[in-house]
Structures are given as C-alpha cells and as structure tokens.
Amino acid sequence: MEALTGRNVRFERHRDHFARGTVDELWLPFVAERAWVVLTKDKQNRYNELERDAIRQYKVREFYFARGAFSGAEMARSLEIAIPEMKSICRTYNPPLVGSITRSGAITIVYDEKGSTHERRKLPKR
Q1: Strands 37-40, 107-112: parallel, antiparallel or unpaired by DSSP?
Q2: Element (H, E) at 119
Q3: Full residue range of the structural domain in which residue 97 is found
Q4: Total of domains in the chain
Q5: Among residues 62, 69, 52, 44, which one has the least CA distance to residue 109?
Q6: Edge-to-edge strands of the sheet including 61-65?
Q7: CA-to-CA dists, residue 47 to 44, 62, 112, angstroms
Q8: What is the pLDDT of residue 41?
Q9: pTM here?
Q10: CB within 10 Å: which end of the chain, N or C, has fewer?
C-alpha cells in the first residue's frame, strides 16, 4: 500500500466494504457507482465471462498484474512505475477498461469500450 500512499493515490480495500468471497457481480456495481478503479492480482478474471459482462455493464476500469505470481515487492515496484500511466489512461479512456500491468510497470490495455484489444489486433489490416 506504500506504493499507493507514496504517490498520493487514495484507495479503498475490498475487505473494508465486502466479505471475502463476495462475488464480483455484487461488488463491481458498487465500485462503478463511485467511479473507482479496480486494482487486482486476479488475472483469471479476464476468462470469467460473468465478470467480463459485469465490467462491461457497469463500466468499470480495472488493472491487474500480468503473467505469473508477483511478490508483494514486485507488485509495489511495478505499481510505482505504472501509476502515472494508469492515471493518464483513466483520463483518456472511457470505461469499461481493463489493463494489464507487467513486472516492468508497463501497461497493456486488453479491453476497452470497443471490446477486446487482443481480438482487434488479430483482424487483418485494411
């Protein structure tokens, strides 16, 4: 959390509002109503159709740590680098938005208001 507080980022912890195990479809609308940004280490959410639907429906912005298990120190270092770009992305892109944060702190947008960026990259160029 020092990576967030050290960069003057206000944050709320999931556990301060919801019990562990609360399904995403219940807490995502709460987050969306407040225009909060979700930061998670659960990268499997991109494969969960119910959560993807909820992100689209409630217009949530979410960032997750990509590829493999990050240690707490690795997450902190990645976040310290990524926060300025995360802020810029949130100002630039309308929700819904999902971004992946690498160990180096780089961000790849994987989903935006037009859908999967991965799927669009696979389309032939015109």
Answers
A1: unpaired
A2: helix 117-122
A3: 2-122
A4: 1
A5: 62
A6: 37-40, 61-65, 97-101, 107-112, 115-116
A7: 6, 14, 15
A8: 83
A9: 0.85
A10: C
